[in-house]
Design a protein that fits this description.
11 helices; alpha/beta; 337 residues; 10 strands; 2 domains; 36% helix; Rossmann fold
């Protein structure tokens, strides 16, 4: 396919395959053999360079960012430009496929979805580092947008001893504003199958065409399987609301809130001081209300004296890959210094 700027020296994309041990036996039956695309910049073999890991948003898998893109740059082309123009130093970037039957990933360990936190840290990163001689202690960063931004934020909070830098674009935080209003349309959708979640998911995959609204339904089912799984339920999904009246079930919703970065930061926030850099941004008219969660996180980190960069920009949640022109150089410089 035609590159947007054929004159810019192109890095190399390597397609690796990793058969995961930690994902074996996952409840939803997803495959353990996973593709990992790896970008190595022009003129380098990867040795000695920092490693960045791209955790993508819901409905995506890492290799989607290495695909040809119409009317713009894919991420390798963006990296080629930023590196060739000296805006950022060279880095290796890994794009792991973490797509699931429930449409995406939050990159946490789940009895239903699988041990995705362990997959990234115990398998994916060591595998890439051993192949290319990149990364290692002090030279690892993670970045993502939306659910990927959530993954980057949670991994930074839980594992600042493993990751050394993180960029969080429009990440899921502030669950009260983000998720609570989504349960009504979920119940309406499930009512067509008498509340049978397993049948709804099967019908979704069997349909010749799905509606945009269906993606929001399966997204909430994925969150339920991530934050409060029930291994006895179809797809491991149990909702935190009553199925007839849509009333919050306090103990179920409490399990969701434990995974809200705004909850995790209360215990884990001071550990973020170990990072070389933490970047957070969000559009000021984000249609999923994420800017309010981002502002709360910024406010809390400031009160904890956690160094970070926080930016808002005049846009919503969609098609904001251009923000990586800001974040990627920040990560790369911090890990190269």
């Amino acid at each position: 396919m035609t590159r947007r700027d054929p004159a810019t020296p192109a890095g190399t994309i390597h397609r690796l395959s990793l058969d995961s041990a930690v994902l074996k036996g996952n409840l939803i039956g997803d495959p353990t053999l996973r593709a990992i695309d790896v970008y190595v910049p022009h003129g380098h073999d990867g040795r000695g360079l920092p490693l960045l890991v791209d955790v993508v948003g819901f409905t995506g898998g890492g290799p989607v960012h290495t695909n040809w893109k119409n009317f713009g740059e894919n991420l390798p082309e963006r990296l080629d430009r930023l590196i060739a123009t000296g805006v950022m130093p060279p880095v290796v970037v890994a794009f792991p496929d973490c797509f699931t039957t429930l449409g995406g990933n939050q990159y946490v360990n789940s009895a239903a979805m699988g041990r995705w936190d362990d997959f990234l840290r115990a398998e994916c990163v060591p595998f890439v580092e051993s192949k290319f001689g990149c990364g290692g202690a002090g030279k690892r960063g993670i970045f993502g947008k939306s659910s990927g931004g959530y993954g980057a934020m949670v991994h930074a909070l839980l594992h600042p001893d493993f990751w050394n830098a993180a960029a969080v674009h429009s990440g899921d935080m502030g669950f009260e504003l983000l998720y609570r209003h989504e349960f009504v349309p979920v119940l309406r959708a499930l009512s067509k199958n008498s509340g049978d979640i397993g049948k709804w998911v099967a019908d979704f995959w069997d349909s010749k065409k799905f509606k945009d609204s269906d993606v929001h339904i399966i997204m909430i089912l994925a969150q339920a399987a991530s934050f409060d799984p029930d291994v006895t339920a179809p797809c491991g999904v149990r909702l935190p609301v009553t199925l007839d009246t849509c009333e919050i079930i306090p103990e179920r919703w409490a399990n969701w809130l434990k995974w809200d970065p705004l909850s995790l930061v209360e215990e884990r926030g001071p550990g973020l001081k170990a990072l070389k850099t933490l970047y957070i941004d969000c559009g000021d008219v984000d249609q999923y209300n994420l800017v309010y969660g981002a502002r709360r996180m910024h406010k809390r980190l400031t009160s904890m004296n956690v160094p970070h960069i926080y930016e808002e920009f005049p846009d919503n949640h969609s098609s904001v890959d251009y923000r990586m022109d800001v974040s990627l150089p920040i990560l790369a410089k911090a890990l190269t210094a």
